């Protein structure tokens, strides 16, 4: 296992981690789902909604299973996903807190709280902003980059092992779906998150 810096104490359920919706991942879909408020023309009986619900459940179960299985072998894998996403964003370039909040679509005070914990862990630091001396930019430290690299490599190894356990046809189907899933991720990243047109 690669050497890693000290990380905050693990927690079973972190309120900062938005990746764990409740009541959907481990329960089967039920008939008679009501219309979806705020989404014009889509109801619980719509095939598109059924597909979306199945995909939502699958993605949630994948993320939960991945993180749970990695924690078995890597106890240091305790960083909440919200903090990991900040580190991933900062890996490209230092940013101000306001810029981070805009990119993550979070309130500035929420980002400030996350940054405070990353500062305490030594994963980020504050740098002078050359464009405005009154403000500072948040930058990834070498320790933060090592932590992010370890996080990425651990996930890659675990997924590679799981893929290798599948039947050849199943593995091929997963690989063939990747381009479409990448496009889905891009659509969700757009303003509105790919929501249906309500006009």
How would you briefly describe this protein structure?
This protein is mostly helical. 52% of the residues lie in helices and 5% in strands.
Overview of this protein structure:
The protein is mainly alpha-helical and 199 residues long. Helices cover 52% and strands 5% of the residues. It has a domain at 67-189: Orthogonal Bundle (Arc Repressor Mutant, subunit A), CATH 1.10.10.10. Strands 1-2 form a two-stranded antiparallel sheet. A hairpin with a 7-residue loop joins strand 1 and strand 2 (136-140). Helix 1 crosses helix 5 and helix 3 packs across helix 4.
Strand order of the largest sheet: 1-2
Question: What average pLDDT do the residues reach?
Answer: 77
Main sheet: strands, sense, barrel: 2 strands, antiparallel
Please, what is the oligomeric state?
single chain
* Helix-strand category: mainly alpha
Assess the beta-strand content as a share of residues. 5-15%
Helical stretch tally: 6
Which regions contain 5 or more consecutive residues with pLDDT less than 50?
A: 1-34, 36-40
The CATH superfamily of one domain bears the name: Winged helix-like DNA-binding domain superfamily/Winged helix DNA-binding domain
Binned, the helix content reads 40-55%
The coarse silhouette is globular
- Measured between the Cα atoms of the first and last residue, the distance is 53 Å
């Amino acid at each position: 296992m690669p050497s890693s810096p000290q990380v905050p104490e693990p927690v079973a359920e972190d309120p900062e981690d938005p990746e764990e919706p409740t009541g959907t991942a481990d329960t089967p879909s039920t008939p008679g789902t009501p219309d979806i408020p705020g989404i014009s023309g889509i109801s619980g009986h719509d095939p598109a909604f059924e597909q979306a619900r199945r995909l939502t459940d699958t993605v949630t179960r994948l993320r939960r299973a991945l993180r749970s299985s990695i924690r078995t072998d890597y106890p240091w894998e305790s960083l909440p996903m919200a903090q990991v996403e900040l580190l991933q964003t900062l890996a490209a370039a230092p940013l101000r807190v306001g810029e981070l909040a805009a990119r993550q679509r979070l309130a500035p005070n929420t980002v400030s709280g996350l940054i405070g914990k990353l500062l305490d862990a030594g994963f980020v630091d504050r740098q002078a902003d050359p464009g405005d001396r009154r403000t500072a930019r948040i930058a990834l430290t070498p320790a933060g980059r090592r932590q992010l690299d370890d996080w990425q490599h651990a996930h890659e190894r675990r997924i590679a092992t799981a893929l290798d356990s599948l039947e050849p046809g199943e593995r091929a189907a997963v690989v063939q779906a990747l381009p479409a899933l990448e496009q889905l991720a891009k659509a969700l990243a757009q303003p509105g998150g790919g929501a249906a047109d309500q006009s």
